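Question: what's this shape?

___
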Amino acid sequence: MLHLNTKDLIDKSKSGDRVSQQKLYTRLNAPMMGVCIRYMKNTEDAEDVLLEGFHKVFKNLKKFTYENEHAFFGWVKRIMINEALMKLRKNKEIQILAINEDLDKEVDVSPLEELETRDLLKLIRSIPVGYRTVFNLFEIEGYSHQEISDKLGVSIGTSKSQLFKAKKLLRDHLIEKNQDYGS
């Protein structure tokens, strides 16, 4: 069977071809689930976000102008991130905690390099949702504090504070984990 490239799948999906839509979903399912699971506390919520996100992808696919595969992947990823943020807001899970003005200190999280991916994901998912959300947006997705401020409706200082506290919590968890193993 002929392997269709992403552009062909998009074009056929735009015209309502269910087989192409399924192939596109299958191609993007795993990486997009990875995006969703970083923001949500449990797999069930991540799956809900994933399905809602794909619903929006296919609903808005006709408006998307294909440039290249990377741009398409980025577009789908932004939809998934926005869906995750909307679910967190809807469930009132994003709680912005007290601002710490001691923001200019850089927190060393170098022990992260030694963790397996699944351990890192588990560690990130263990921190409070506000910290986790800002950490993901800044460190993983590459958003600026201004962009995070706009997306979450918080001040830039709050975004910086949440990131600072997230890194501190992650560092503290890593130190604790190393002590548990006798390091």
Confidence is low (pLDDT under 50) at residues 97-114. Residues 156-180 form the longest helix (25 residues). The domain at 110-180 is CATH 1.10.10.10 (Arc Repressor Mutant, subunit A). Helices lie at 6-14, 18-39, 43-60, 69-90, 117-126, 129-140, 145-152, 156-180.
